[in-house]
Design a protein that fits this description.
Layout (H helix, E strand, L loop, with lengths): L1 H10 L25 H46 L8 H10 L16
């Protein structure tokens, strides 16, 4: 029966004690708005928005700098690895290709005419 008494004490709600602190109340107007809350909440929301914009701009700058720092060497490596060797360049062949006008459109005035 002592277990029944212990269980009964655990299930009963305890009455609030007089030592429990209560939250301080703020002065309100007749329509329920707080006297000091409205201007401060607007100012704080503006400040938080500016702070968030600053943090995002700073984060974007760091990410951009990091992307540039990584992209420059990778681009250089790509260009160096795809560049043809000096031995593969044939000056006579390239000169003939330019003089034939292969890179010019058909109606260009500087393109040499084909002789039949």
């Amino acid at each position: 029966t002592s277990n029944d008494a212990t269980m009964e004490n655990q299930t009963k709600p305890k009455p609030p004690s007089a030592a429990t602190p209560t939250a301080p109340t703020t002065p309100t107007t007749a329509n329920g708005e707080t006297l000091l809350g409205t201007p401060h909440s607007e100012l704080s929301s503006i400040c938080l928005s500016l702070l968030a914009a600053f943090v995002l701009a700073r984060l974007l700058a760091v990410v951009s700098a990091l992307a540039t720092a990584l992209a420059a060497p990778l681009t250089g490596f790509y260009l160096m690895s795809t560049c043809p060797t000096v031995e593969s360049f044939d000056a006579k062949r390239e000169l003939k290709r330019v003089l034939r006008g292969d890179n010019l459109p058909e109606d260009h005035p500087d393109k040499p005419k084909a002789s039949d």
